[in-house]
């Protein structure tokens, strides 16, 4: 993997877009990333990690994309990171934008845009970029697959965190295990341990559950067996639980079968006795029934003899009723004829009473003739009735014409009045339209003037603010210059004092017999002595360092002063010398004029619409006036025609109605009269017919009564019975006849008569004996059924227990196997001599590889003195750990890494980090890493060690690698020429390339 270019916008401390050319930096092989604290050096590395994985390194990951945004960025600038790199032979460009709370385009407040990602690949054939994906998930999977590393591994392999590895050197086995577990992703081995432990617990639970179920079956068998065979004391987990349960179950089944045999014999004996007593009870009940039957029959015969006379009277009455039934039709016919005649006579009298005196005395034929004459006269009035209806329609039409004439007059008057004011209304509306159009033109002109006024006002405000900033910056620059001058003067003073006392420093190194470095003499009779104000080298160097820091502050303050002055000049050129208050007044006045003009222009469209509606109303009223005049001319001719037709119809109606109020009244009068005549004629005819039928019915009734044996029709009518009385009498006769037959039949039965002669049957005694036999049979049956159920339940539970034992056997075997494996991987088994967990064992192998790879570079950095080795000595609780020791070639002894000094710890941790990077890279599939970053720690090295460390890092270039060093050490700025400086400013950090 080689980085080419990184573009950062509104990310971290970078408020604007910053571009980093890694190709130019990598050309030197070794480059330095430096800058003041908080400038954003680490943010550059965060941006690389965010572009690749969509997240910053774990220690700085917050979980919210909004926190990645720079506080210095303008509100309208979106946060974006774009990385151009080559990986696995493919040139890719990754662009990522985190979620962004941008200002709303309409209204106030903010709205959050979703995160965006783009992945492009450079097509060498087409010499152009082509889009690959815009999916976060697809891009993440593609990058992870190409790099072969997770985000955590990348941060440890490419962004080498020296502080983590210094802690790694001094950490205990548990802490080392956590770090190595993250790098090499050994969670699968921990998952294996966890899975085996879970399976062991699950297998143990299955075995315990099987034992509990088997013991529950044993207790259920004990309940089913009763008190015959006691259950031995058993608990879950006993080795002989299954065998004891099966043995006891066999014994319980044998005992239950013996009890079943005894209960079956007892039930058979009780059944035989119950059958015998049941037969005796049945015989006693039959004899008692026959005796009761004979006694009841004799009592019924006595009652029949007592009511013999009443039965004879009922029989005679039934015979006379049957004779009178022959006369009943004639009686019914005579009564019906009498009712019809009385009804017809009443109807005739009522109909004649409604007729006038001359007509009331006519017979039926006269009345019919008068009715026909009345109907003929009604038919002659039909033409006059139609004429009368037409007169009413003519009156209604005349009324409608009057209403139309009145409405047309009102509409003509309204139209004339409205049209008279039309010109005034049109001129007023046109004036409003012209005024609104002028306001719209004025608003457009003011809108053009408004934006320059605003821009000039903003520039003036910026000018005033920058003017104040310039004064402050000038004051700071002056103070910095004074401090630098004082520091320079102080350094020169100390240097001069040291030079004056340099003889004392040289004398301090003189040794008798050794030549002097200045004169070469071997005798030193009077060496110089240091006085009270002597200045040594350290004091001079501290003064020099203070002077250099003051000089850097001065240069920085002057640079800031120049930048502020440039900005002030630009703002002054745009705003001029006009005061802010005057510009603000002009802008406000333009805004007010623009608002008034825009409000006046808003009336243009309503005025145009109102004029259009007024013109439409004028056209409508003119058309209405013309139509009203046409309708008035048509009404005049229609009135003349209606008047002529009305005169003719009134003459015809007057002749037809006579003395009545109208033709309809005359027709109604004739209709009522004809109806009364018709009704009277029909009533007279019906009365004559019913009188004749009554005479005929009287003759037939007298003849029928004589033939039936009755002297008069009244005597026959008295002998008749109605349906209810006839049914009741017939029922009494039938009941007596049935009772006599039943009594005779019972008294004639031989078996009943014989039973009556025997002694009375004792049914109660037989029932008590049978009841006792039945209870004994029921008890025997219950005992037998209980024995049968006991045997069946014991057989079922025994079979279930045997099945459980067979199913439990493989579970016990599986539990034993899983328990052995779980103990072995957890380090608690006796077979695991070193008491190492599976994950620790794998990590120990990885640590051996890391130590071997780190030793190659550590030897060069320490001039062959130190070697890193892995130690599997047992640590706490008797288990082997992940020990890491250093072998000192000068002493030949192995000691703990915690005994290394600060500088030794740094280059040892650096060697460990580089070795770990090589191992993780090989683990990730041998992906080539052409760009590495090393963070801080160089300040703890002396010059010689620093040279050796830089030689090792420079040797990485032989493998076509580029290494970026993140450091504050000033000496590295002289040793490493290619530099990326991060400059911290008030408006956000910026990057600068140096020495390229």
What does this structure look like?
By secondary structure, the chain is α+β, with helices and mostly antiparallel strands. Among the domains are: 1-148 and 932-996, Rossmann fold, CATH 3.40.50; 212-296 and 763-817; 422-602. It has 27 helices and 17 strands. The strands form 4 sheets. A 6-stranded antiparallel beta sheet has the order 2-1-4-5-8-9. A 6-stranded mixed beta sheet has the order 10-14-15-3-16-17, with helices on both faces. Helix 9 (308-324) packs across helix 21 and helix 14 (422-500) packs antiparallel against helix 18 (604-657). The longest helix is centred in the middle third of the chain and has 79 residues, at 422-500. The two termini are 22 Å apart. The mean pLDDT is 76.
Sequence-ordered SSE layout with sheet pairings:
Elements: E1 2-9, E2 18-21, H1 22-26, E3 30-34, H2 41-53, E4 80-87, E5 90-97, E6 100-103, E7 110-113, E8 116-123, E9 128-133, H3 136-147, H4 151-157, E10 159-161, H5 162-170, H6 173-184, H7 187-225, H8 241-306, H9 308-324, H10 328-353, H11 357-360, H12 364-380, H13 382-420, H14 422-500, H15 502-508, H16 537-575, H17 580-601, H18 604-657, H19 663-707, H20 713-719, H21 723-747, H22 750-757, H23 763-826, H24 838-861, E11 866-871, E12 883-888, E13 893-896, H25 902-923, E14 931-935, H26 943-955, E15 962-966, H27 971-975, E16 978-983, E17 990-994
Parallel strand pairs: 3-15, 3-16, 10-14, 14-15
Antiparallel strand pairs: 1-2, 1-4, 4-5, 5-8, 6-7, 8-9, 11-12, 12-13, 16-17
């Amino acid at each position: 993997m080689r980085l080419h270019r990184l573009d950062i916008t509104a990310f971290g401390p970078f408020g604007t877009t910053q571009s980093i050319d890694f190709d130019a930096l990598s050309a030197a092989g070794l480059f330095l990333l430096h800058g003041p604290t908080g400038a954003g050096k680490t943010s550059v590395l965060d941006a690389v990690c965010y572009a690749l994985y969509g997240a910053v390194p774990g220690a700085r990951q917050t979980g919210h994309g909004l926190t990645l945004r720079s506080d210095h960025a303008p509100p309208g600038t979106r946060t974006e990171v774009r990385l151009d790199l080559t990986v696995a032979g493919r040139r890719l460009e990754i662009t990522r934008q985190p979620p962004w709370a941008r200002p709303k385009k309409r209204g106030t407040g903010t709205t959050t845009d979703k995160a965006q990602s783009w992945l492009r690949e450079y097509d060498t054939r087409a010499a152009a970029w082509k889009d690959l994906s815009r999916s976060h998930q697809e891009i993440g999977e593609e990058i992870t697959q190409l790099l072969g590393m997770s985000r955590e591994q990348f941060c440890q392999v490419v962004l080498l965190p020296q502080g983590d590895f210094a802690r790694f050197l001094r950490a205990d086995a548990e802490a080392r295990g956590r770090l190595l577990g993250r790098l090499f992703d050994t969670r699968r081995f921990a998952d294996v341990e966890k899975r085996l432990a879970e399976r062991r617990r699950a297998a143990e639970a299955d075995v315990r559950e099987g034992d509990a179920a088997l013991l529950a079956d044993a207790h259920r068998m004990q309940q089913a067996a009763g008190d015959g065979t006691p259950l031995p004391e058993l608990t879950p987990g006993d080795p002989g639980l299954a065998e004891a349960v099966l043995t006891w179950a066999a014994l319980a089944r044998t005992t239950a079968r013996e009890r079943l045999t005894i209960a079956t014999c007892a039930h058979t004996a009780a059944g035989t006795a119950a059958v015998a007593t049941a037969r005796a009870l049945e015989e006693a009940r039959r004899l008692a029934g026959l005796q009761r039957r004979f006694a009841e029959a004799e009592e019924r015969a006595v009652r029949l003899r007592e009511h013999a006379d009443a039965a004879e009277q009922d029989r005679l009455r039934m015979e006379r009723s049957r004779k009178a039934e022959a006369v009943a039709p004639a009686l019914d016919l005579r009564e019906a004829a009498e009712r019809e005649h009385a009804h017809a006579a009443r109807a005739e009298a009522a109909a004649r009473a409604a007729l006038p005196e001359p007509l009331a005395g006519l017979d039926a034929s006269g009345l019919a003739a008068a009715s026909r004459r009345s109907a003929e006269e009604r038919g002659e009035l039909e033409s006059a009735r139609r004429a009368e209806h037409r007169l009413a329609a003519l009156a209604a039409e005349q009324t409608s014409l009057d209403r139309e004439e009145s409405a047309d007059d009102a509409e003509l008057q309204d139209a004339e009045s409205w049209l008279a004011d039309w010109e005034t209304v049109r001129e007023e509306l046109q004036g409003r339209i012209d005024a609104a159009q002028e306001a719209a033109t004025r608003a457009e002109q003011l809108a053009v003037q408004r934006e320059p006024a605003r821009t000039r006002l903003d520039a003036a405000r910026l000018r005033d603010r920058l003017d104040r900033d310039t004064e402050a910056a000038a004051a700071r620059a002056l103070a910095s210059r004074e401090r630098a001058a004082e520091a320079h003067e102080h350094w020169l003073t100390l240097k001069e004092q040291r030079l004056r006392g340099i003889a004392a420093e040289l004398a301090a190194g003189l040794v008798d017999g050794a030549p002097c470095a200045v004169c070469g003499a071997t005798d030193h009779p009077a060496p110089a002595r240091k006085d009270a104000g002597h200045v040594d080298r350290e004091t001079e160097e501290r003064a020099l360092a203070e002077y250099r820091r003051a000089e850097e502050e001065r240069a920085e303050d002057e640079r800031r002063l120049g930048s502020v002055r440039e900005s002030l000049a630009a703002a002054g050129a745009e705003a001029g010398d006009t005061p802010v208050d005057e510009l603000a007044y002009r802008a406000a006045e333009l805004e007010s004029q623009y608002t008034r003009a825009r409000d006046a222009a808003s009336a243009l469209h309503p005025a145009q619409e109102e004029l259009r509606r007024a013109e439409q109303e004028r056209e409508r009223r003119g058309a209405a006036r013309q139509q009203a005049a046409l309708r008035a001319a048509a009404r005049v001719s229609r009135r003349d025609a209606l008047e002529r037709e009305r005169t003719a119809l009134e003459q015809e109606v007057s002749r037809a109605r006579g003395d009545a109020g109208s033709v309809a009244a005359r027709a109604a009068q004739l209709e009522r009269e004809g109806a009364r005549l018709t009704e009277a004629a029909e009533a007279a005819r019906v009365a004559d017919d019913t009188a004749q039928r009554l005479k005929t019915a009287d003759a037939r009734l007298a003849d029928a009564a004589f033939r039936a044996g009755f002297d008069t029709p009244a005597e026959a009518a008295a002998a008749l019975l109605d349906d209810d009385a006839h049914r009741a009498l017939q029922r009494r006769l039938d009941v007596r006849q049935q009772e006599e037959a039943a009594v005779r039949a019972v008294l004639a039965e031989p078996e009943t008569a014989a039973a009556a002669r025997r002694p009375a049957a004792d049914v109660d005694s037989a029932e008590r004996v049978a009841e006792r036999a039945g209870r004994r049979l029921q008890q025997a049956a219950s005992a037998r059924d209980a024995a049968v159920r006991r045997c069946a339940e014991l057989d079922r539970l025994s079979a279930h227990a045997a099945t459980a034992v067979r199913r439990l056997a493989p579970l016990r075997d599986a539990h034993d196997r899983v328990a052995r494996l779980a103990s072995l991987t957890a380090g608690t088994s006796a077979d695991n001599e070193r008491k190492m967990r599976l994950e620790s064992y794998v990590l120990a192998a990885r640590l051996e590889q890391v130590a071997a790879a780190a030793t190659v570079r550590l030897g060069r950095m320490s001039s062959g003195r130190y070697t890193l080795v892995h130690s599997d000595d047992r640590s706490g609780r008797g288990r082997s750990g992940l020990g890491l020791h250093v072998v000192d070639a000068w002493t030949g002894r192995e000691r703990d890494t915690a005994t290394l000094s600060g500088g030794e710890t740094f280059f040892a941790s650096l060697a460990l980090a580089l070795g770990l990077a090589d191992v993780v890279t090989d683990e990730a599939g041998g992906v080539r890493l052409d760009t590495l970053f090393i963070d801080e720690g160089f300040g703890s090295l002396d010059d010689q060690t620093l040279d050796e460390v830089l030689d090792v890092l420079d040797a990485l270039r032989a493998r076509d690698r580029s290494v970026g060093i993140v450091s504050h050490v000033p000496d590295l700025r002289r040793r490493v020429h290619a530099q990326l400086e991060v400059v911290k400013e008030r408006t956000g950090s910026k990057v600068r390339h140096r020495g390229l």
